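Methods: holo model generation. Sequences were used as deposited, without trimming of termini or removal of tags, and paired with ligand SMILES retrieved from the corresponding compound records. Each pair was processed once, and we did not select among multiple samples. The sequence and PRP SMILES for this entry were:
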Amino acid sequence: MSLPDKAFPVSWDQFHRDARALAWRLAGLGQEFRAIVCITRGGLVPAAIISRELNIRLIETVCIASYHDYVNQGELSLLKGITPELMTDGGAGVLVVDDLTDTGKTALEVREMMPKAHFACVYAKPKGVPTIDTFVTEVSQDTWIYFPWDMGFTYQEPIAKGSKG
Ligand SMILES: O=P(O)(O)OC[C@H]1O[C@H](OP(=O)(O)OP(=O)(O)O)[C@H](O)[C@@H]1O
Ligand SMILES: [Mg+2]
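and the model returned the structure below.
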């Protein structure tokens, strides 16, 4: 598969605002979370922001990789599971955080470990939406989200270059 046609670039500022908006939504649920489980690596950044906003200091990781060559999803590899103490009662009271859900496969894998946990991510594509309880912004399935930690400054061709006008 090649990169989807549409690009949704996200700056650090925008990501911070959107992750904070996610924290506001989660605060609005009126639920006390006993811990955050972040899905590495993408979940580390929103987890830092949400843990600060919601004053959650117990942070655990579940380490999963699936997009081995950036755009193409392969087999999911579970590199590190979740501590058994947090998986008691199906993960009730635990907040699972990721940067985005795309096909929903990653979230479903973690849901099998903690069916009663609350799943949150900043961005969602339609296929992944049913796997998530709370998110901020939906983008179409044929959009690629460019996160600031994957980006650098590069030269951009002028729009007019190559056009007949
Ligand atoms: O809904 P899905 O189709 O499963 O895709 C979403 C997952 O893909 C990305 O992680 P990736 O596996 O690329 O690893 P990374 O977080 O280390 O970049 C992203 O951070 C999500 O965790
Ligand atoms: Mg990830």
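The longest helix spans residues 12-28.
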